[in-house]
Amino acid sequence: MVKTTMLNAVVEECYLHYREDWCDGVWALHPYNTKAEWKIYFLHFRNELLCSNKEISFYDDSMNSRREDKICWGKNIRFLYNGREFMWTIHNRIHLISEDGSSIIKDVYFSGDKYYKEIVWEDFKKNLDGLIQS
Length: 134
What we know:
Number of domains: 1
Strand content: 25-35%
Distance between the termini: 36 Å
Order of helices and strands: HEEEHEHEEEEHH
Structural class: alpha+beta
Strand order of the largest sheet: 4-5-6-7-8
Shape: globular
Radius of gyration: 14 Å
């Protein structure tokens, strides 16, 4: 959070807490008992990885506008890469979504062994390309 401007941008009356059941353990910032996905902010490596790479665009245009702040919201982040739709889920799975958006074609799992925290763009890109090609 120190490296982002998240605190300047998030909704008021949020609280910070650690959730072991989300993303293999993550700090989350959101209003008490919220159900609105756009009010849930994760302090997660995926924000940096997705926001820093111009080959990625977000399905949500308002999230695209917050790229420089490295802010992503919601438990599942939908994004576009190489003309295809993907979703990074709360369970650290990257899903390739069918062209009509109705189903998951294939996915890859980033387990709790911290691999996803250490992944660099080129390796992440290879995973996405591998999902597209299979």
